Amino acid sequence: MAEDLPGVLILDIGGTHGVLENLAVLLKKHFHLIIMKEFLENKKEMGKKIQSIFVFEGRPTIDRELLESLPNLKVIANSGVGVDHLDLKMISNFGVKVTNTPQAVADPTADMGMALMLASARRLVEGNVLHFPGS
């Protein structure tokens, strides 16, 4: 069944730099996940199966060598707001589209900004240190 799904290249599942395990479960419903180690062990065969790359926390690194080894690549999906870490001109020269998630962290960022402003205005950190020394 997984072989019938479009192949997506990811760095790894779990660990320090891999896709979060819960996210991998969701991705597996729609894609055949191919981790970088599996791809590197058999570039020629695996390269043909990969139609997408899922970039999580800036990994895997997208360079010319990688793009040249993926003849059926159609899209690079970046799981974040910015695409500054991607060479968009080079990628587009390969006829590959790039996507991102521009609103993914808008609400949490606003919440954190408000929390920091309130903590600063009410001197919460200083009050915590004065009332609970050593914490």
UniProtKB/TrEMBL annotation:
The gene is Hppr. PANTHER family: 2-HYDROXYACID DEHYDROGENASE-RELATED, 2-KETOGLUCONATE REDUCTASE. SUPFAM superfamilies: Formate/glycerate dehydrogenase catalytic domain-like (SSF52283). The keyword Transferase does not apply. This is HPPR reductase. It holds the Pfam family 2-Hacid_dh. InterPro entries: D-isomer_2-hydroxyacid_DH (IPR050223), D-isomer_2_OHA_DH_cat_dom (IPR006139). Keywords: Oxidoreductase. Gene3D superfamilies: NAD(P)-binding Rossmann-like Domain. It comes from Probosciger aterrimus. It comes from the Eukaryota.
